[in-house]
Design a protein that fits this description.
The complex is a heterodimer of chains A (490) and B (319). Chain A is mainly α and 490 residues long. Chain A has 3 domains: 174 residues, no CATH class; 156 residues, no CATH class; 140 residues, no CATH class. The longest helix of chain A is centred in the middle third of the chain and has 33 residues. The radius of gyration of chain A is 23 Å and the shape is globular. In chain A, 39% of the residues are buried. In chain B, 50% of the residues lie in helices and 7% in strands. Chain B has a 5-stranded parallel sheet, with helices on both faces. In chain B, α12 links the parallel β4 and β5. The longest helix of chain B is centred in the N-terminal third of the chain and has 31 residues. The termini of chain B are far apart. Classes of the chains: A mainly alpha (490), B alpha/beta (319). Chains A and B meet through α18 and α19 of A and α1 and α10 of B.
Chain lengths: 490, 319
């Protein structure tokens, strides 16, 4: 059951009615049932796997806490390793079991839904694994207590708005809300519904429309000009953003209907002024996860090991930052997929961030000489497009079917020869319209938050008319073919 | 901000009314724009469904649209002719158009150009293409039934104007800015292709299509229903397989099924897939699948001559 289907809206409505019909102390059971039903709508057998994984981690949490309290702590690394191994088994199945005639896809139970047949990984396993790892680490760090109520813990994993694609929720944020489920008030419901409408706008009007053009070009890239490939890559950047942030808006909006606040996952990433800034605005729950559970522990580990101030003439601080960044982003790439293009994508980001870090001091000096403040308009005018282009450049690796394909495309782009492929005129025009609206909305939110208020107007009539028009735009220009979300596959 | 309960209900009702009003306004604007179409894809569909009174109607996909010149056919047969072909479509689209048109007007002759793999496509593959007909679903029962394919939710969605006029704006407006882009009105539905095939650029297709892929049962049912309707209304249905530049089609399950159905209802079949008058003649082709203007005129004349003979023999049989 994909978010962009009427079935989903009907499912949300029924779940919401059931949720509000039951007394507060057993509402978690309603959420658990709805979460499992939602999960069962994909490949049913995987629900058992996730229940098994969840059950084991529930025990791990209790063991960790008990051992810690008894003064005989057990290393969390074993439990983390178990989750990583479980994820890797499914994610890198083809590499781990390189026997061509053996495929889980040959088994009837894995063939329930044709659209996910080529993915052997249980839906949302990447997100669930990261959620579980953060749960265990936070217990180990003593920041939270292990969850005693197995039902609440299961909802923490299976809460349907986030089970398939995140946000990757920290236990500190979600578990307390699940323990004390409240009834969403009128304003929270309205806020949730507004977010859902925005999510559908991004997905149906922008992402799915752009997908038609981008797929037409990238699926046949050898027959397109450098200009077309460059243009399609820029469009892909918007497609990816609209697709994933659209999903997140629907997830956060749906959660609000149940009185639950999920974590913000996007904050206008294409208006970032640096790559570092970009990663603080893009897939925030994932990037902050990498920072807190990978980058910082790695940096700490290296700093403990490297006692000297310099190694081979290079400052230790720089070596530590670079090494931790590269490892983090290689893992970030591999999290997205097992193919070399994802690895290259991660590595490229790691290298670019390391270079940016190295240049930080000299940049600071230049800014000082030019009396240019980071908050100034000129600074943003220069840095936003540069950052955007760098990010778009990396997306060639992200979108390409293989590393060879990405290199071929990058080889062809600089020639900028040949005409621009426009395809069907309506798709081209609607694509540009969608991007235009997306950019306008993001610019308004970023730079004129308290001005030109239409959707957030204090006058209810203006706000209502704005949202009615937005629904009209979705109806008139949306793509209703039930296209899957891009990050669903990760 | 505290909002009184009755006010909440009132606001929800107002918002619902706004959406309904917007839907109604979209419907009014859409139908006005539709009625203003003088050329373009929507004009062609609208004309076929609601207005055409021609004696001969050509039905099919891109082969039909570009290979059949109504003027040439009219000249030989001395009957008015309209080309209702639409590129990229399949049986489902033809079926809905055909059924709706016949319900209003039964032509004397229908030329049905069948692609050699036409019956292999499933409804799931054809519905997204046939969604082009959504703006006509409200006022045409058979189109609504065909597009919803028995799905109640889809049927319900098709009662919304916003949904029916989804993604139509560009093609609604294009004829006002670029006349004749989707076929000129004076060509009577024909979309001639000007130019000639460049054989040095075309890779020779050595593989002979001898496809025996399974055909879809509901597509066979639609084709059969089209033939039953033609027989019921005393329409001469002529099945045509157009020529391709390379003689790569020998036989397909679609052709076999269509031939047996045509023979069951006594309808003639004109198979040009092996016709050497056209095959391999670069000056007659625009690309490997479509004839150019010159080829289409020749082909249409040839078809018309053959239809003339068929008509004469049918008449003599009757006498």
């Amino acid at each position: 059951m994909v978010f962009n289907s009427l079935n989903y809206l009907l499912f949300v409505l029924l779940s919401w009615l059931a949720f509000n019909a039951f007394p507060q102390n057993i509402r978690w059971a309603v959420l658990l049932v709805s979460g499992i039903l939602f999960y069962l709508s994909f490949v049913p057998v995987f629900a058992l796997l996730i229940l098994l994984l969840g059950g084991m981690n529930y025990r791990f949490g209790l063991i960790l806490e008990r051992k810690k309290l008894s003064g005989k702590p057990v290393s969390v690394a074993w439990f983390v390793a178990f989750n990583v191994a479980f994820l890797a088994l499914f994610k890198y199945f083809d590499y781990l079991v390189p026997v061509t005639d053996f495929s889980l896809l040959n088994w009837r139970i894995f063939q329930t839904f044709p659209e996910i047949n080529h993915w052997i990984i249980p839906i949302g396993l990447s997100y669930i694994s990261f959620t579980l790892i953060s749960y265990l680490i936070e217990i180990n760090r003593g920041k939270i207590q292990a969850e005693r109520n197995a039902g609440v813990f299961a909802v923490y994993l299976f809460f349907f708005p986030k089970v398939a694609q995140g946000p990757i929720e920290r236990p500190q944020n979600l578990l307390p809300q699940l323990r004390h489920l409240k009834t969403a008030g009128y304003l929270m419901i309205v806020e949730g519904l507004k977010l859902i409408v925005w999510g559908y706008f991004k997905k149906l009007v922008v992402a799915d429309r752009l997908a038609i053009y981008v797929d037409a070009v990238y699926n046949n890239y050898s027959n397109h000009s450098g200009l077309t490939l460059a243009f399609a890559t820029v469009l892909y950047a918007f497609q990816l953003y609209a697709d994933f942030s659209g999903y997140t808006d629907i997830a956060i909006g749906t959660a609000k209907l149940f009185g639950i606040d999920l974590t913000q996952n996007f904050k206008r990433p294409y208006l970032s002024t640096s790559l570092k800034d970009f990663w603080s605005r893009w897939h925030i729950t994932f990037s902050s996860w990498l920072r807190d559970y990978l980058f910082l522990p790695l940096a700490l580990y290296f700093s403990r090991k490297m006692k000297k101030n310099r190694y081979a003439g290079v400052a230790t601080e720089l070596i530590i930052y670079t090494a931790a960044t590269l490892i983090t982003f290689v893992i970030c790439g591999l999290w997205h997929g097992e193919t070399l293009n994802y690895l290259a994508w991660g590595l490229l980001f790691g290298i670019m961030l390391s270079i940016a870090n190295k240049m930080e001091k000299s940049n600071k000096m230049i800014r000082k000489k030019l009396h240019l403040k980071k908050e100034s308009g000129i600074y943003k005018l220069i840095h936003i497009p540069i950052t955007f282009l760098l990010v778009v450049f990396t997306f060639v690796f992200f979108r390409s079917p293989s590393l060879d394909g990405a290199l071929d495309i990058l080889n062809r782009i600089p020639s900028v020869q040949g005409s621009l492929f426009t395809g069907e005129p309506d798709i081209f025009i609607y694509s540009l319209l969608g991007i235009f609206l997306l950019i306008v909305f993001d610019l308004k939110q970023e730079f004129f938050e308290n001005r030109f208020r239409l959707f957030e107007s204090k006058k209810i009539a203006i706000s209502m008319v704005s949202y009615a028009l937005l629904i009209g735009l979705i109806g008139l220009f949306g793509v209703f073919d039930g296209g899957q979300f891009i990050y669903f596959q990760f | 901000m505290h909002i009184l309960p009755y006010k909440k209900i009132f606001l929800v009702l107002i918002f619902g009314a706004m959406i309904i009003l917007m839907d109604i306004l979209t419907g009014m604007t859409g139908s006005s724009l539709l009625s203003l179409q003088r050329d373009g894809r929507y004009h062609k569909i609208g004309y076929t469904l609601d207005k055409c009174k021609e004696d001969i109607v050509i039905v099919g996909s891109s082969h039909a649209e570009s290979n059949f010149c109504p003027h040439s056919i009219s000249k030989v047969l001395r009957k008015s002719c309209w080309n209702a072909g639409r590129g990229g479509q399949g049986i489902l689209y033809w079926y809905m158009m055909y059924k709706t048109m016949i319900h209003r007007h039964a032509p004397k002759i229908i030329i049905l150009n069948i692609e050699p793999n036409a019956l292999e496509y499933s409804a799931n593959q054809l519905i997204p293409r046939a969604n082009l007909l959504k703006p006509f679903a409200k006022n045409h029962r058979f189109i609504k039934e065909g597009l919803s394919a028995g799905n109640k939710i889809e049927e319900w969605k098709l009662s919304s104007n916003l949904y029916c006029y989804n993604s139509t704006l560009v093609y609604f407006l294009r004829p006002f800015f670029q006349k004749g882009k989707d076929g000129k009105p004076e060509d009577l539905g024909w979309k001639p292709k000007d130019g000639q095939i460049n054989i040095t650029e075309v890779k020779k297709q050595k593989e002979i299509v001898n496809s025996y892929k399974p055909v879809q049962h509901n597509m066979i049912r639609m084709l059969q229903e089209m033939m039953v309707l033609a027989a019921k209304h005393h329409i001469l249905l002529v099945v045509v397989y157009s020529p391709d530049f390379f003689p790569y089609t020998r036989a397909t399950t679609t052709m076999q099924t269509t031939n047996s159905l045509a023979s069951k209802y006594n309808f003639p079949v004109l198979d040009y897939t092996k016709d050497t008058n056209f095959i391999g003649k670069p000056h007659l082709f625009y690309d490997i699948q479509h004839l150019n203007r010159e080829g289409a005129i020749l082909f249409s004349r040839d078809i018309a001559e053959k239809v003339k003979v068929i008509m004469l023999s049918t008449q003599s049989n009757i006498q």
